## 1
Amino acid sequence: AERQRSRPSFVPPPEIRQLRDVTRYRADLVGARTAEKNRAEKLLEDAQIKLSVVASDIFGVSGRAMMAALIAGERDPKALAQLARTRMRGKITALQEAFNGRFTDHHAFLLARMLARVDATDADIAGLDARIEELIAPFSTAARLDEIPGIGPVAAAIIIAEIGTDMSRVPTAGQ
């Protein structure tokens, strides 16, 4: 049997490998932040606080203000609902009902840790975004990928990080 020769695997240049490391770590942190937000939402549900039923994003300005008040010891549903801003103001009655739960100091302790972790992860992601901007700068012509509808700067950086900029390995458009 004749052995088929395989081509050597693609090893990107150091600049692309560094970009790849940072974009992959960013994706991991986004996943970790999502998991932490899910834990916080589950904790509120455990306390029979149904904020996520009323608010589309409990981590928005209004939701964060309400969670901060819960952590600080506020338990009055009317007072908590009054923290709603802009469009959420139209849902005051539903918010009052959502805060009829059994949120305890135990829940406050855990929620404070979860929100701190979300905030720290947000800060880390912002730092990675700044680093991605630095690393992608030399590839500014390739970074024009973000001009494609649906491809933003982060997605463009991920594409460059994963496939590089050398398209000579793909000799024809069909390939």
## 2
Amino acid sequence: MKIPVFDLTRQYRAIQGEIDTAIRRVLESGHFILGPEVEAFEAKIAGYLGAKHAIGVASGTDALLLSLKALGIGPGDGVIVPSFTFFATAGTVVNAGATPIFADIDPKTFNISLESVRKILDQPPSGITIRAIIPVHLYGQPADMDEIMAIAKEHGLYVIEDAAQAIGAEYKGHKAGTIGHLGCFSFFPTKNLGAYGDGGLVVTNDDELAERVRMLRVHGSKPKYYHHLVGTNSRLDALQAAILQAKLPHLEKWTERRQKIADLYDRLLQGLDALVLPYRAPNRTHIFHQYTVRVRGGKRDALQKHLKQQGIETQVYYPLPLHLQPCFKGLGYKEGDLLESERASREVLSLPMFPELRDEEVEYVASAVRRFFEDKNGP
């Protein structure tokens, strides 16, 4: 049996008629950048998330960058980010002219550690004014937003939620991305709500910030050719908006299926001492963008090789924490500075996870994992 870590063709086949109709509608309209399709999607996604404003942009990376720029964050400013996450969270801080300040993670949730954040704020780096924090809702589970918002209020910080992997997840009844000052989403094709190319979204309940983001995505202009800000070209195109409109009504059903797959993995994989299953924190929902386990005892890479031999694809998100990336060497971090992030990078493994994954495929994956630990007793 061959099992991919994700398969976008299965989803397309399931809703092919709806997708083809949406694409044809755009092609026949002749309107491909912003316009009615984007406006309609923005209205629908704002309603789904419970946000006052939703602004479509070119990518999840641009959503973060434009949010930073809308807040006026730049040279001399610092932004606290987790070290264990996708590169864009920190890369956009640098591209805004500011400095990323890396925090460690909670070993259970993989989200930013409140203890680490407080330590940074108690002893901030010299010469830098900390202006914001970007909590990442990693793998589809929200971070501890009540505590993060309280810390931010105490220290006068902005909060930009990186909800790229968490669309539809809830924290105490609020959708991820709608709790901070700004929330950022990605519609990269493999996301839970994915486009057929790049796409992103900024949400906020602040009228002034929303207006600034809208201007920044069109070179800072309002009206056209009158530029009040130095922005960039970061527009969500109509084709992607139409595709996302077609997919949005299916998102809850897809999320429920992901959660059922996660429950099945949990049941089939329990009892393996060297395997730590995903932790579900209280007062929130986990939408399982990834089903990520920890493999103890230095056996992660051997397990991944074993599964590949069985026809099972897996991924390591992420093999090197950001504070140890070569491009950030000049910031002065070294191995041993953020122990939980470093440990996670050595232990995490994401198993196949997408809504169209069949139960028998999950059972095949789980059986292969169990054989590795039980029959062979590891490498």
## 3
Amino acid sequence: MVADRPVTFLLGRRDEPTDGVEDYSIHLGRALEERGVPFSLHRIPWSTVGWVRALLWVLRQAHQWKHTWVLVQYTALAWSKQGFPVAFPLVVLTLRLRGCRCAVVFHDPSGFPGTRFRDGARRAAQMASMKAASFLAHRSIVTIPLDRLSWRPARAAFVPVGANLPLIEAGRPARDGVLTVVVYGVTGGERTNKEVEDIAFAVDRAVARLAAEGKRVRLRVLGRGAIEAEPLLRVTAPNVELDLHGVLPAPKVAGLLATSTVQLFVRGGISSRRGSAIAGIACRLPVVGFSGPETASPVTDAGVVLVDEGDRESVADSLARVLQDETLRQDLSARSQRAYELWFSWDAIAGRILSVLNNNPDG
């Protein structure tokens, strides 16, 4: 039983400029504390001291955590600079040898996509590492439903992620009456151009339709990749009023989301591990976006309007329809609020985590 015994969060390399896994750990830890379970957070310094010294560090530190739960947070790039996390199972093995109760939280449970030979090799290394770590751990926690995985982790349970944001009163209309489409985060790298073009196409069509009704539509882009996307947005959506922000403190992000009208999500298919999408649900927004292989309940129970991934025409039509229909927006907002309270609030997530640690992991 966990009871009032401490829970330790163990993280790998820090992500920059923001670290969603660290934020996840802190928010979840605070929710556990509210339930009487103290927590601590530590990073394994493998990226600065090398793997041999890092594992010796784990060996020394783990005696403090004997017979208590250690939640090891997995993303491929947290445990390998190039996405080949082959040393990660050794962390779990070391914890087991020191008598710790070990649970691995798989934030990237599907492996990286891609069709190049290197992509396939990287994905194979990731899958092998995850399977080995799952076999060694006492519990495996995945952030998408188990039936959406191509593999079955040992002793596995599904617990979605939450929004790394403070609670804020949502649904407040902008003072100027402009309908605001918000995009939270733009993917970098080779996917940027297509993603920005999808955003521009959908919002440009919405602007044209709403202009016929005498209404203004603004595009608000914030978070990672927002500033980098500005030049292409200005070229592909010259008629769209832009409100651009980069990486901001969480309270400001929450405020900008809460004063938006609808969230547009075209960063691949929406899923319960995508914190940027969950942030919109937490702020009680309607969400228009793509569905994909990971798309399933409970994220589909929220106020989402989804089309097949890559269907630019349909996502544009859906966005315009939601902006035009206030009654529909209110219904979607209410659904997002219910889904947030039941699945995506940190209290709900903490309760599920404790149930997994204390009881049957498949329950």
## 4
Amino acid sequence: LLLWLHANYASPFFGAGPMEDLGNSKVYAMYVSSGGMTLGDRDYYLANDSRNKEVREAYKKLIIDNMRLAGYSKKEANRIMKNVMKIETALADSAWTREQSRNLPAMYNVRTFAQLKEMYNNIPWDRFFIETMGIESPETVIVTELSSVAQANNLIGTLTDREIKDYYLWQYVRQAAGKLSDDFADAAFEFNKVMSGVAAKQPRWKQALATAEGLMGEAIGQLYVEKYFPQSSKDKMLELVDNLKTALGQHIDNLTWMSDATKAKAHEKLSTFTVKIGFPDKWRDYSDLTIDPSKSYWENVKAAIKHNVDFSLADYGKPVDKSRWYMPPQTVNAYYSPLSN
């Protein structure tokens, strides 16, 4: 079940996957990291102020409501909730604070595969990478939060089968819940009113659009830019940015407080800027994703999730593609990626 969930739907106990190597952003490395907490932040589980207590109670109710809707009795749903809270609270207790998570050098803990197996011996690493990712066991991995993965390993080795199975049941149901009936959507809305302060539930068409955009963002983006941002507009903006880079270069040359060596380094940094305007130069190919109208909404969502997982895993062992977009063109936002610098 651990391997099946990691391969398809969720990351119980810990997370794993390829990302840019923090020590060499030109290549992808295999990471093992913290995971398994539905609420994400440790404070939701551990802090005793009224706000976090309120969120915890709402989360407990969400678990019970969803498990009842999934067919479990009231007694079973309460048991599942208690076991989930026990496990996720234990994971939170070992999780890093927000401040600690900003210390990227402290998260760069390179370990050999043999060391990984020795440190976390309750996790079936010999099977894990091949069965969840289709990747042979890597020579080295980067463990980001040593204490969190150690806690996951300890829990897997000490919890009862019933506790672990209840945790896995919730991991699966919570992934599916948002793509099921209105009863599940209503339960999620009641939780989100407490968690996020939302005042009204989104209409169904917006929810469906958000799902499609989240799973096939560039496919929708390609249609969007055809209507609202043609190639001619992109070319104008690229020319503008090129002019800005030229001006910045001239500004560097005219600085009196920089030495020649420092100016050379500044020019080197300026030359490495990756400019992304409007939309990707090469669109992502979704041709191997099959959406079958004869299947349920959730079955098609599962197919899209698996497609995205496989897309990410295909990066491993390849040079980093600096031209890839991590946000669809129709999204008005910005991001900074330390892994890409």
